[in-house]
């Protein structure tokens, strides 16, 4: 009783086609396909962009803060 037979699905499909029409269903299908393709392309672009950008290593950050005179090391004040 919980599962539908093929006849139930055919009747539902017939009602959907009668309500929306084949042209509207075709447009919805092509829009959905374009959205899925755009999502996949975005995921590919996002993974390649994340791989190509590298975060600075610890040595680069330490060298940058050593040359920057306006940076105050808060922990150094508490230690000394």
Describe what this molecule looks like in 3D:
It is found in: Cell membrane. Part of the twin-arginine translocation (Tat) system that transports large folded proteins containing a characteristic twin-arginine motif in their signal peptide across membranes. TatA could form the protein-conducting channel of the Tat system. Belongs to the TatA/E family. With 80 residues, the chain is an all-alpha fold. The protein has a domain at 1-52. Helix content is 78%, strand content 0%. It contains 4 helices and no strands. It is elongated, with a radius of gyration of 29 Å. The model has no long low-confidence stretch (mean pLDDT 75).
How far is the first residue's CA from the last residue's CA?
77 Å
Number of helices: 4
**What's the Cα radius of gyration?**
29 Å
Quaternary: single chain
Mean pLDDT: 75
Shape: elongated
Percent of residues in β-strands: under 5%
Task: Count all strands and give the number.
Answer: 0
User: What's the story with the biggest beta sheet?
Assistant: none
- Series of H and E elements: HHHH
Question: Regions with pLDDT < 50 over 5+ consecutive residues?
Answer: none
Give the helix level as a range of percent: over 70%
Structural class: mainly alpha
Region (Disordered): 45-80
Membrane topology: Single-pass membrane protein
Transmembrane segments: 6-22
Pfam family, one: TatA_B_E
């Amino acid at each position: 009783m919980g599962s539908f037979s093929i006849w139930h699905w055919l009747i539902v499909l017939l009602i959907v086609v009668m309500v929306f029409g084949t042209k509207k269903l075709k447009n919805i299908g092509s829009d959905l396909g374009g959205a899925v393709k755009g999502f996949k392309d975005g995921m590919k672009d996002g993974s390649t962009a994340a791989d190509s950008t590298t975060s600075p290593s610890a040595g680069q950050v330490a060298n940058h803060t050593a040359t920057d005179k306006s940076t105050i090391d808060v922990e150094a004040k508490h230690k000394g």
